[in-house]
Amino acid sequence: MRKLVLAALAASAFAAPAFAQDDSFTGLRAEGVVGYDRVGDGTGQDAGTSDGVSYGGAIGYDVQAGGAVFGVEGELTGSTTDTRADSLLAAGDRLTVDMGRDLYVGGRIGGVVGSGTLLYAKGGYTNARVDTEYRTATTTTRVGENMDGFRVGAGIEKKLGGNMYVKGEYRYSNYGDLGGYDIDVDRHQVAAGIGIRF
């Protein structure tokens, strides 16, 4: 009987940190993300915005201190979104902008608002690959470039069973002026993710 009690105490001592980790937002995490992607070029034309799907993955690390959570994260996504502007520099011309891969590195800060629920705000640096094509009646010019910008957003994360979680977030990114053209590229995204915390 004494051995059984000691074994139970030893097992609970080893299990306690694991149970504590399940209730905490501290740790390394990895997730897949997919969502709605809307890109605008700032021209004010209806054709200057376009919708598509963003998809990819992210990794991050969070630390919980009391009810506050602080974290860093990195994300790599692709997109099906493109946009165009007509008669931009001359009558009859067309500029097409295709959004490619997007790299993001930033941080987040949030608060635990209930059992296994986190509300957070995020912000950081984003670098998007943009492929442009400018076409007139006589010439076609294609240019691919990387654009630097910033991203801000907010979201909610909810723990599932084990170490799994789901999240939803809105984020806004702005990449400034696309070189050589009078357009200001920005994007609005609503993303959902599912991940695991290690």
UniProtKB/TrEMBL annotation:
Signal peptide: 1-20
Pfam families for this protein: OMP_b-brl
Keyword terms, alphabetized: Membrane, Signal
Subcellular location: Membrane
Recorded GO CC terms: membrane
Family of the protein in this entry: Belongs to the Omp25/RopB family.
Protein's name in the database: Outer membrane beta-barrel protein
Organism expressing this protein natively: Sphingomonas tagetis
